[in-house]
Amino acid sequence: MNIKNLLKIAMNALLRNKLRAFLTMLGIIIGVASVIAMLGIGQGSKLSIQQQIAGMGLNLVTVVPGSQQRGGVQFGASTMQSLKEADVAAILSDCPSVQFATPEVRGNGQVVFGPLNWPTSLYGENESYLQIRERTVESGRMFTAGELTSAAKVCLIGKTVIDNLFGPGSDPVGQVIRFKKIPFLVIGVLAPKGLNTFGQDQDDLLLAPYTTVQKRVLAITWVQSIYTSAVDSKSTDDAAAQITETVRRQHKIKASDPDDFSIRNQAELLSTFSSVSNILTILLGAIAGISLLVGGIGIMNIMYVSVTERTREIGLRMAIGGKGFDILLQFLTESILLSITGGIIGILLGIGASKIIGSAMSWPIVVLPSSEILSFAVCTVIGVFFGWYPARKAASLDPIDALRYE
Amino acid sequence: MKKLIEIISLKKDYYVGEVTVHALRGVDMVVNEGEFVAIMGASGSGKSTMLNIIGCLDKPTEGEYILDGIGISSLTKNDLSNLRNRKLGFVFQTYNLLPRTTALDNVELPLLYNKTVKTKERVERAKAALESVGLADRMHHKPNQLSGGQQQRVAIARSLVNDPVVILADEATGNLDTRTSYEIMALFQELNSKGKTIVFVTHEPDIAKCATRNIIFKDGLILRESPVKDRSMATEILATIPIEAD
User: Fold this and answer.
1) Whether the complex's predicted ipTM surpasses the cut of 0.90
2) Which helix (H) or strand (E) holds B35?
3) How many residue pairs from chains A and B have C-beta atoms closer than 8 A?
4) Which residues of A touch B86 (CB under 8 A)?
5) How many helices (H) and strands (E) does chain B have?
6) Whole-Å CA distances, B189 to B29, B126, B180, B203
7) How far is A316 from chain B (nearest CA, A)?
């Protein structure tokens, strides 16, 4: 019996019971569709997190003061005053993998314009801030090196602050606002960036020269953290190592003592989040996989019923010359046809569902060709695996008994 | 005369639990080419077992069976399948047609298991077989659209399509009324007159008289074997049976 005839016979047998064939397939359809959709959602959430972290600056390497022990007392990291402007200069000159570096000092407080006020953060940075944090100036200008040395009272302003102080759509360049009673001239507007991965509003800020914030607002001499960017995303680990070495030398830390600072890079954050969403993907996939398994058992069940129902047909086929192997192939073809047809419908449905979920959640939904190929392969395997036992049963029938079966 | 079927001291035992049933206890039998043999006997006499063995569906416990020069005792299951496919045609009491499948597709079925027959040849041979049983105009009808007699004709066409050396019929008229039974017997006689060898199991003496030779089984042995003296011609009997008004 050739493949064409096998397919024809299997097709006819299935079409004899259209509703039953469809209901049997439904298990596989739902199983495959949910596998595809779940993997799509998993991949999508992973990609979405990756994009957001990349948006924060993938090359970013941050130096923050670490906790320290003095006379047996452990001091909290945020109270440390160990990082200095000189460290930034040393990093820039001694670390070949670092492209930009800026000190950061930060103050929180009310910003006031006319009768309105708004609580926000004032970030003190240098002019490399835009490159490091991948931001752009929408209107106006960035502060200059001159304004940095002279600790000029100028600032750039984020969209959320504009909305609350000036009203949406207005251009505040040239206006003077007050932060903790200190007047700042607005020289530019930062292009909006939206929420970051943690839900923080990245547009709720004022940006000023770090010298201004250090001397005029906070009255401190140290810096709270140092932001640097590596030359590319692959060299963040090199950059971190070079920075560690440089800052240890700057702080005159003995080889036996621990660092008095710590270094974070986005790649670590990215891998943490990626592994979380990988676990999520595996979990979702596993649940969907179980429904696929249940679908397969449905096929086995129906194939058993079908073999019993068609015992006389099997007997007849054997009597007129069908071998056990022919009968085996016939029933296997039926179950494979069922599972593959179900699989194809399931894949299409799964892609559709992914697209709908994706647009509802505004996630980038990724349907990987590999998950389609995988589902298709799994369906074929299910067809063979769950079809095998019923087909085996059919093939091993005795033609005399089968012909007499009532 | 060529011996198509030769059975030599054949025994068949069944084991039902602890009990051994001696279905056949040493049968010798020959069917020559061109014969029309009717096997008769009460139920349990061993006639069905005999037909199963002749049909290569079952193997003897002891003794030898030679079909068209081939001894079957040494053959494997697959060899037996091929033998059935190439040399035998079956007609059953309950027709055993595939439901919801056209007459033509039903008749094609044996040829599907013969790799040497191509699609075009298969369809042509199936059509020719249906024409020879007088169902040229029913080719695309499904079994539920056919009468019992017509269904049995489709089954006979199916048994003819592989051009077998012997046609084996098991109570082929058992489910049919008298008139239709004789119609089927007329068809068998016509096929026999064209040279087909037929082995026919029945328990109706009237039907058995249509054959050329009767073999009567009793308790697993041949009780009597005799040529039919005044053979009934089914076409003549048909003429005497009035066609029932619908």
Assistant:
1) yes
2) none
3) 60
4) 321
5) 8, 10
6) 22, 21, 14, 18
7) 7
CB A399 within 8 A of CB A319: yes
Token pair in block for residue B28: 């010798």
Chain B, nearest residue to A311 by Cα? B96
C-alpha to C-alpha distances, A178 to A77, A93, A113, A207, A384, nearest whole angstrom: 30, 36, 7, 13, 75
Per-residue pLDDT reduced to its tens digit, A54-105: 666 668 888 888 766 666 677 666 667 788 888 888 988 888 888 899 999 9
From B135's Cα to the closest Cα of chain A, the distance in A is 21
pLDDT tens digit sequence for A335-392: 999 999 999 999 999 989 888 888 887 777 777 788 888 888 888 888 899 999 999 9
List, for residues A229-288, the tens digit of each pLDDT value: 888 877 888 888 899 889 888 888 888 888 888 888 776 777 777 788 888 888 888 888
- The residues, any chain, with a CB within 8 Å of residue B85's CB and separated by 6 or more, are A320, A321, B110, B113, B114, B162
Closest CA to A312 of A320, A337, B184, B103: A320
For chain A, the structural domain boundaries read 3-52+271-404, 101-227
Smallest Cα–Cα separation from A349: which of A45, A39, A34?
A: A34
Which of A313, A315, A321 is opposite residue B114, by nearest beta carbon?
A321
The rounded mean pLDDT for chain A is 87
Q: In order of start, what are the domains of chain B with their CATH numbers? A: 36-48+76-240 (3.40.50.300)
pLDDT(B246) > 70: no
Rg (CA), chain B: 18
Q: How far is CA B155 from CA B52, B98, B102, B160, B229, in A?
A: 18, 10, 12, 9, 30
